[in-house]
Amino acid sequence: MMSAELDIVERSFEFAVRIVRLCRFLETQDRVSRTLANQLLRAGTSIGANIEEAQAGQSKADFTAKMAIARKEAREALYWLRLLNAAEVVEGEKLIGITKEADELVRILTAIVKTSQLGKNS
Hints:
By secondary structure, the chain is mostly helical. The protein has helices at about 5-25, 30-55, 60-85, 90-120. Helices cover about 90% and strands about 0% of the residues.
């Protein structure tokens, strides 16, 4: 594995840990918070799971497909975090770091997918 791939594996795992902690807090709140927590938990934890699957991909196409799914999940997690902020479910200040990390994961995964697709066409 390349250094960037190792980095994304670890970062996505740490992101999932942060998502689990945030969702634990949201579960103690009202029904809306709990509903949003379920959505965020699914998206935020599946990023790393798909990246792990990509590492064991059977082909370059399989790797690219799993990384593309991880990118979609990261975009979804970013959406839910933005919604939590905009709807004032969680104070915006408390979401800055995790939202920034979600955005960075999207960017990194986009670069990995693009690079992988370029390599497939050569």
